[in-house]
Amino acid sequence: MKPKKIIFHYPVEVDGETFSEVTMRPGKARDRLAAQKTVPVGSPEEAEPQLFANLCEVPVKVVEELYDIDYNQLMEAYQSFLVPPPKTSEKPA
Description:
two-stranded antiparallel ribbon, 2 strands, alpha+beta, about 90 residues, about 40% helix
């Protein structure tokens, strides 16, 4: 799997730095577990921004400041990593 570049419709500024795009790498189970450890028990939805921040290697504040249209792009990129590659059909010999 290859990382995906996401260009924001509405760049965000965090700590004096402007973020207009990020690159998300495919996640591993350890990424999800690490993100879950950062939120209170029973709040799995709060782990998602941390997961996306980890996969994009940006501060979580960047993800939290995104408009929904751009956050949706992160969700779509992440979901695309969860789809298995197409199977190749092998012809009998």
